[in-house]
Amino acid sequence: MKEIVLKTNTQKSVIYCGKGAFEKYAHIEGGVFIVTDSNVYSLYRDLIEKTFSGATVKVIRAGERSKNSRTLLSILKLMADAGLKRGETVVAFGGGVVGDIAGLAASLYMRGTHLVQIPTTLLSQVDSSVGGKTAIDFKKVKNLIGTFYQPEKVIVDPMFLKTLPEREINCGLGEIIKYGALDKDIYEKLQGADDLKNFEFLEDITADCIQHKAKVVFEDEHDLLGARKTLNLGHTTGHAFELYYGKKSHGEYVLIGTFYELYIAKKLGLCEEAYAQNIENMITSVIGNIPVYGDVRKAAGFAVYDKKNEGERISIIAPKREGESVEIKLSVEDYLNYVEACNGFLKEQNENS
Ligand code: GLY
């Protein structure tokens, strides 16, 4: 079991990562309010009731569409109805959606309760439960409303991965490959792995990704200095496609976005061909061939809402070389032209294969 401490100016967050973490660290003193979703609740209802007996449980509908203001208010209402007090604890028990919305509710209710994150998907274990970003989507923009609010504890137990469908593992691998493009040691481990979906491997690499993230969040908790922006590698195009097409998981769109942004970096001479090829191979080993899209300009147009943008320029974070990424700022027109060209390249590749 690994214990990773993430210190910020105002708070300390401890991440317990490994087998047995839930059994050892999930017990909480005092009043507890659980937020979970319908899928997770149907799998873990007994465990939740046994571990947090007497807690109020709010079950939200599973899926990204629940990350909205109505669900947020319904959580806050139940907190008030249950008489939750400021010194008591909100537990986010579930994947990224639960973590984001429960974290936001915890930060708003009485201006802040205690918060514990118990991520149950690979994506939330490896990325979203750590670092204190909370959010809901609003006006069709992902994560438009949110706060920075660190959980006191994050309990990352690989036992939850056993009930995940393969698509959820692929989704988490989207963020893991992102960390591989940011961190040389993670990249080397990924390159050396026989099977990226092996559970022992996932447990080990998850701790490495969290360690990387803890370092970045320590440097730039509020995403103001540039370091945290790197964690958005592949996300500008990924988020835009996710908003427009919305059929795949977040992690899969991150992989597709990384592919497109690598293409742009290569065209601009910012990323070596051989290294780009290695990252592309990792991507396709997880999700297969990158799809060819219709309406790709329209979809990519959603990138204008990305919060990294400055003025009229679209910002993307692309892989550069081992352990290094690069921020590329493009006019909207140039960005859309590159995306269209990449889609055309994929189409040609498909036709020739
Ligand atoms: N998932 C990106 C971040 O936490 O900053």
List keywords for this structure.
single chain; 353 residues; alpha/beta; seven-stranded mixed sheet; two-stranded antiparallel sheet; 13 helices; globular; binds glycine
How would you concisely characterize the structure shown here?
It is built from 13 helices and eleven strands. It has 353 residues and is an alpha/beta fold.
List the helices and strands and how they pair.
Elements: E1 2-7, E2 12-17, H1 21-25, E3 32-37, H2 38-51, E4 56-60, H3 69-81, E5 89-94, H4 96-108, E6 114-119, H5 122-128, E7 133-138, E8 141-148, E9 153-156, H6 166-182, H7 184-192, H8 199-219, H9 235-244, H10 250-267, H11 273-287, H12 296-300, E10 313-321, E11 324-331, H13 332-352
Parallel strand pairs: 2-9, 3-4, 3-5, 5-6, 6-9
Antiparallel strand pairs: 1-2, 7-8, 10-11
This protein binds glycine.
